[in-house]
Structure formats: C-alpha cells, structure tokens
Design goal:
3 helices, 4-stranded antiparallel β-sheet, alpha+beta
Length: about 140
C-alpha cells in the first residue's frame, strides 16, 4: 500500500493499493483519521484501524493505538471477567437436573469397516466387469 495524498492537518489520506483486494473494486481509499472512517468500511464498522488506516498512520508517523476502540483494550477485556455471579443460596430454588441426555446424530455414524459411505450415484458407465482372478504362476 502506498499513501498518495496526505493532509496532516485534517488527518485525511489517500491510500492506493498496489495489489487490489479481491472483494473491492476500488484501487484507492480515502482515510479520515479524525472521523475514524475509511472508504472500505472496515474501520467504521469494527472500530479498529483497517489496513488502509494503518498505512496512513505509518506514513504520517502517527500512533495507531489511539484509533482503537476502548472495548478492544486489554484492561477492558479483563474487566469483563471480573464480574462474579452470586450462587443461588437455597437449594430448593435450583432447577431439577436429570442428567445429560445425549442424542447421537445418525448421519454422522461410520460404518463398522471404517470406510466412508459413497454419495455417488452409480450408472452403467461405472459398472466394472468382474473378472475371475488367477494366479500368474501356473
């Protein structure tokens, strides 16, 4: 990727891809770091810098970490797991448990010979003449 135009004051960059992405028809993307947007749509949908925004940050020597949404930061991830759930104090309020009921999927059952079941439809072209095998030493 290559940054073709750069406006450091407005934090607007034009990033050109040297090899276009498969799913995008455009070869050039406008990145607005102040608005946290990119023409590809990934930056604003994930709230995480896309590859075009990272190229713009690298070209302008800007720290890309400030454009990451706080939900992705490590301290916030740890806060999510700090919450403790209080146990239900009275056992009479617990729902009855009858054990685990497993229901196997018959479609995933293998044959006893460990061979896969052929899903091919046989026709007259697939028929092979059965020839009696003989030993070559007579």
């Amino acid at each position: 990727m290559r940054v073709t135009h750069c406006n450091r004051r407005a934090l607007v960059f034009a990033v050109e891809e040297l090899e276009p992405l498969e799913s995008w028809s455009l070869g050039s993307f406008r990145v607005r770091l102040s608005a946290r947007t990119c023409d590809c749509g990934i930056f604003q949908s994930l709230h995480f810098p896309c590859c075009h925004a990272l190229a713009a940050c690298a070209a302008a020597s800007i720290e890309w970490g400030r454009y990451v949404h706080p939900v992705y930061k490590q301290e916030n991830v740890f806060k999510m797991y700090e919450v403790k759930f209080p146990p239900i104090p009275d056992k009479k309020l617990w729902p009855e448990w009858y054990g685990t009921h497993l229901h196997p999927n018959p479609a995933m059952r293998q044959k006893a010979t460990e061979r896969l079941v052929s899903m091919k439809f046989q026709n007259e072209m697939d028929e092979v003449e059965r020839v009696e095998k003989r030993c070559g030493m007579t």
